[in-house]
Amino acid sequence: MRNEMMHRPVVKQELVDFMRNKQKKVQGELGVIEEEAHAAGVPIIPHETVVFLQFFLDQIKPKNILEIGTAIGFSSSLMAQYVGEDGHVTTIDRFDVMIRKAKVTYERLGLTDKVTLLEGQAAEVLPTLTGPYDFIFMDSAKSKYIEFLPECLRLLRVGGVLMVDDVFQAGTILDPIEEIPRSQRTIHRKLNQFLDTVMTHPDLTSTLLPLGDGVIMITKEREITE
String of b and e for 121-140 (b: at least 16 CB within 10 Å)? Predict the structure, then answer.
C-alpha cells in the first residue's frame, strides 16, 4: 500500500533528490535489500536518514540499541553494524507479515545472533524490558509516540539518545487541525502533543532534523522521576 506521507517531502524536492541519490550507497547485501525495498515500494527509512544513522552511530558507538517498529528489519540490520562484537539490537513489532519478512532479512544477513525480535504490542512489551539502552529508535504508529515516551525515557540511559522518525506529518504538523483530513487528526493532535512534551521537558535536550518526514533527536540529561 502506498504511504502518501513518504511522497510529500518537507524540503525542496531538488534537495531531497540530491540527498537520496548523491550520498554514498549502503554496501553489500544490506544495500541490495535497501534497493529491493525501494523498488517494491516497501516503507523503510529513506536514504538520507540511512546516511545520517550511519554517521551518527559511528560517532556514539552504542552497545545496546532498542527499536520500536521493525518493519522488514532493514533499519535494525543497519544499526546492528555499529554495536560492536559485544553489542546487541532489540526490536519490537506486532505485525505478522512484517515479522516474517524481518526474520528473512536477519537470516539473509547472518544477524540472528545480533538482533532479537520481540513479537507483540509495544505498549505491552516495553514495560517488560530493563535496559538501559544507549540508543532508541522509534518508528512505529505515530499516534502512539506520546504513549511510548515514558517507557522509552525509563529505558534510555542518562546521556543516551532517543531518535524518533516521521514527526512532521508530511509537512502538515503546523497546519490548523481543521485543515487536516479527519482520518489524520488523531495523529496530528498526538504528534503535536509529543513534540510539545519533549521540546519543553526540563530534563531533555532535543533537536529537529528535516530528514525524510522529519526526525527529532532527544537526549536524556538526568534521571527522570516523574
Answer: ebeebbeeeebbbbbbbbbb
User: Which residue is listed with cell 525501494?
Assistant: 38
Q: Which CATH architecture has domain 13-220?
A: 3-Layer(aba) Sandwich (3.40)
Cα–Cα dist 96/102, whole Å: 10
Q: Determine the Cα–Cα distance for residues 153 and 157; give it in Å rounded to an integer.
A: 8
Report the distance separating Cα 140 and Cα 93, nearest Å.
8
Q: Is 143 annotated to bind ligand?
A: no
Q: Note down pLDDT in tens along the chain; length 226 residues.
A: 444 545 566 778 888 889 889 999 999 999 999 999 999 888 899 999 999 999 999 999 999 999 999 999 999 999 999 999 999 999 999 999 999 999 999 999 999 999 999 999 999 999 999 989 999 999 999 999 999 999 999 999 999 999 999 999 888 999 999 999 898 999 999 999 999 999 999 999 999 999 989 999 999 999 886 6
Q: Which of 107, 102, 100, 104 is nearest to 91 (CA)?
A: 102
Q: Is 166 annotated as a binding residue?
A: no
219 CB contacts (<8 Å, ≥6 apart)? 159, 160, 161, 162, 204, 205, 206
- CA 8 and chain centroid, separation: 18
What single string gives the DSSP state of each residue in 183-204? Answer: GGHHHHHHHHHHHHHHHH-TTE
* 75 annotated binding-site participant: yes
The answer to the question of whether 93 is labelled as a binding residue is yes
